[in-house]
Amino acid sequence: EPEVTQTPSHQVTQMGQEVILRCVPISNHLYFYWYRQILGQKVEFLVSFYNNEISEKSEIFDDQFSVERPDGSNFTLKIRSTKLEDSAMYFCASTIPAGHTDTQYFGPGTRLTVL
Amino acid sequence: AQSVAQPEDQVNVAEGNPLTVKCTYSVSGNPYLFWYVQYPNRGLQFLLKYITGDNLVKGSYGFEAEFNKSQTSFHLKKPSALVSDSALYFCAVRASNQGGKLIFGQGTELSVKP
């Protein structure tokens, strides 16, 4: 069964450094998402991406964040200058639009630790 | 604004007993409701969804959920719990537009004891 994959599984970085989190969505999916989950808190939407542009973003997704689909398979989330509060689990998800019935399928996540 | 509430942080059930994990929602327009499960150090796995039609939705691993419009609830149920069902369960609601973001509840930790 096709799956969403994410790399790395765990990233440790120093405050102020740039990080790039990578995702490979399911191959025939067209909508892509990033969510994050701070330890002990709920899963929060960051951004959705469709047709090579951002379709929706949350208040969390400020100028320090960017997303890209550099080729036909990868979907990346870049944090330009990491802060301590960026430490969280980051989930990628994808879906194939099917009217109102589309289901988002999630990857295993990347745990980002900012020191 | 859309929101989801899971009133119980933790639910404890004995193996073989029925389980219920509660979820209520607030949304303008038609609700599109989902349940996901998260095992330790794993991603979110889709369990089931309600879009329209029959109020009782059946999903993976023997789980089902009942949509109740008047009570704005979407409780997750299973007739007979297994120890392996122990995990974190998330209810989510989606905007009615295609490709819309999911809004998650805070999660409920289900613990099934032998």
Tags for this entry?
heterodimer, A: about 120 residues, Immunoglobulin-like, four-stranded antiparallel β-sheet, globular, B: about 110 residues, six-stranded mixed β-sheet, 12 strands
What does this molecule look like?
The complex is a heterodimer of chains A (115) and B (114). Chain A has 115 residues and is mostly beta strands. Chain A has one domain: Immunoglobulin-like (Sandwich), CATH 2.60.40. Chain A is built from no helices and 11 strands. In chain A, the strands form 2 sheets. In chain A, strands 2, 4, 5, 6, 9, 10 and 11 form a 7-stranded mixed β-sheet that branches. Chain A has a 4-stranded antiparallel β-sheet with strand order 1-3-8-7, with no helix packed on it. Chain A is globular and about 40 Å long. Chain B has one domain (3-113): Immunoglobulins (Immunoglobulin-like), CATH 2.60.40.10. Chain B has no helices and 12 strands. The model of chain B has no long low-confidence stretch (mean pLDDT 92). Chain A binds chain B through residues 4, 6, 31, 33, 35, 41-45, 48, 50, 55-56, 58, 91, 93, 95, 97, 99-109, and chain B through 30, 32, 34, 36, 42-46, 49, 51-52, 90, 92, 96, 98-107.
Helix and strand string of chain A, N-terminal first?
Answer: EEEEEEEEEEE
The CATH superfamily of chain A is known as Immunoglobulins
Q: Which fold name fills CATH's third level, the topology of chain B?
A: Immunoglobulin-like
| Broad CATH class of chain B | Mainly Beta
Q: What's the overall geometry of chain B?
A: globular
What's the average pLDDT of chain B?
92
- Count the domains of chain A: 1
CATH architecture level-2 label of chain B: Sandwich
Number of discrete helical segments of chain A: 0
Q: What sequence of helices (H) and strands (E) makes up the elements of chain B?
A: EEEEEEEEEEEE
In percent, how helical is the residue content of chain B? under 10%
CATH structural class of chain A = Mainly Beta
Structural class of chain A: mainly beta
Integer-rounded radius of gyration of chain B: 13 Å
